[in-house]
Design brief:
Elements: E1 5-9, H1 12-23, E2 30-36, E3 50-56, H2 61-76, E4 84-90, E5 93-99, H3 104-108, H4 113-130, E6 135-140, H5 151-159, H6 169-187
Helix pairs in contact: 2-4
Amino acid sequence: MIEGKRFEGKNLEDAIKKACEFFNRPKEELDIKVIEPGSSGFFGIKAKKSLIEATPKITSDEDLKAFTESVTKKIVSYISQEPKVEVVKEDEKLIVKLDVGKDIGLVIGKERQNLNALELLVNLIVGKKIMEKVDIKMEVIGAKEPQKRTPKTQIKRTNSFGGRRGMTNSTKRSRSFNSDKTKKFFSQ
């Protein structure tokens, strides 16, 4: 994961120089957050060192893939022991392929709700980091594709209750009584 690292120096310039040397990047390609500005003190007495936190900016597709992979791996590691994450860029989308082994049900969740939440979280974190909207889709290796609800499957689902959903017992009795009466009438 592209994480921030803390650097200490006599002054801000010294701390920033150390960060640039560590990441092997110029100052413009680093996100620098000043934690402690430091002070020279009174004649050098009680002087405080400067403390900064530096993180490399995401400048290429490879950096974006690496950051997305690390964020996803960190979040999924709370659910699955050792998740394997692969990030592929297709057109303008990033597709994250997860291999979580036996924890597939936990990662996907009922009606894909956990996976949708994970997708949203990663989208928000990565989007905030690079300051623009990112389209990230999650795929779990070994998972079935979600079933599309067509009108036929919707009808089957409602008919599985026998078409009498929400009826009271008295309504059911009167309905069955009427149908028996009509059968007798027409059988004569």
